[in-house]
Amino acid sequence: MQCTLTVKMLFPPFYPLYAVNVIFTPTTGAGNSGLTAIIHTFARRVQTKIKDLLQQMEEGLRTADPHDCSAYTGWTGIALLYLQLYRVTCDQTHLLRSLDYVKRTLRNLNGRRVTFLCGDAGPLAVGAVVYHKLRSDGESQECIAKLLQLQRSIVCQDSDLPDELLYGRAGYLYALLYLNTEIGPGTLCESAVREVVTAIIESGKALSREERKAERCPLLYQWHRKQYVGAAHGMAGIYYMLMQPAAKVDQETLAEMVKPSIDYVRHKRFRSGNYPSSLSNETDRLVHWCHGASGVIHMLMQAYKVFREEKYLKDAMECSDVIWQRGLLRKGYGLCHGTAGNGYAFLSLYHLTQDRKYLYRACKFAEWCLDYGAHGCRIPDRPYSLFEGMAGAIHFLSDVLAPETSRFPAFELSSSQMDKKM
């Protein structure tokens, strides 16, 4: 259920929308001291809230499911949070805390699922990165070797494995790309990545032929017999991964397969600027990372980076307006279907455009998260987890403090300055 309040109702008198081009610029002189004080006050509020929420989270995790090792709702997500806090603060205690959770997950791998968010690939990839940062190369390589052992089931076209991010091939692909960006290029051989990319592309081509959509949408995907659109279960998340530079998809495939498929999805947009949860759904309701504009926007931004066509940037900006108008959610503060996940859309668009309007919008969504628990939001099933609960909000708040290097966890990869619009 979406919140009926609008963001404008939350604007304090000293934070007018017209000031977005100056309030984030360090200033000197008596005339600008008030704005500088606002910036510092906001940063202190965020830092204080992070400490408060971390304490609440740790206390709450005492009763969490001891067997949930996933990044989505389990211990790997908490390890990712502490890895993020180490990244933005360089405080070694956060890295060691991440290691504590990594060790817990590696003792409890179950082998039933293979993706980064919901399977064994997540604990193994995060473990490899944490051990690498601690210079424990033997343990890091052991994690990588176990991750690669999962690949056989991923590339088998006869399996019933889907292609989407949470439970499918794109989720395993992310784990490989994550290692090559966090540890370094060449951590995994190119053939490992290429095999997974090929499997995803062949699967999409097969369904497109089956549905007789090869000309309109060369790469078509479904999950549980429904052709989802969004980032979590749908085509936006899959296309987004295929467009990552680290995936090394050849230009011909990008131009002839991925690009027309993206355009097919674009044409399913509602008049409001939002997107349906699936191709068959005509209800304009959800504005989440998992379903709706908040996830599709990442596909559009990546398409703009790859193809350099203004239509993708224009559509992304229109998505951001939808999120701004409808993105404060009573469903919660988390990443998958909450305010923090929606806020990341603004941070990513700020990276791309360097337009401070989007940084301002991210900060306003962060301000909503500073009143965590005060809005009557639904309490999620895993209230302290990364993708459903408190850990995701903490992750977002920490990135608001360091917006130039922010990235949506378990989805966006480290980006270079070249990704920004020149």
Automatic annotation (TrEMBL):
GO BP: carbohydrate metabolic process; peptide modification
SMART domains: LANC_like
Subcellular localization(s) per the UniProt record: Cell membrane; Cytoplasm; Nucleus
The UniProt record lists the keyword Nucleus: yes
InterPro entries to which the protein is assigned, alphabetical: 6hp_glycosidase-like_sf (IPR012341), LANC-like (IPR007822), LanC-like_prot_euk (IPR020464)
CDD domains: euk_LANCL
Gene Ontology terms: cellular component: cytoplasm; nucleus; plasma membrane
Superkingdom: Eukaryota
One Pfam family in the UniProt entry: LANC_like
Statement: the UniProt record of this protein carries the keyword Cytoplasm: yes
UniProt keyword list: Cell membrane, Cytoplasm, Lipoprotein, Membrane, Metal-binding, Myristate, Nucleus, Phosphoprotein, Zinc
Binding residue positions for Zn(2+): C290, C336, H337
GO MF: metal ion binding
Predominant subcellular localization, coarse grouping: membrane
Task performed by this protein: Necessary for abscisic acid (ABA) binding on the cell membrane and activation of the ABA signaling pathway in granulocytes.
Homology family: Belongs to the LanC-like protein family.
Quaternary structure note: Interacts with an array of inositol phospholipids such as phosphatidylinositol 3-phosphate (PI3P), phosphatidylinositol 4-phosphate (PI4P) and phosphatidylinositol 5-phosphate (PI5P). PIP-binding enhances membrane association.
Name the record gives this protein: LanC-like protein 2
Biological source species: Myotis myotis
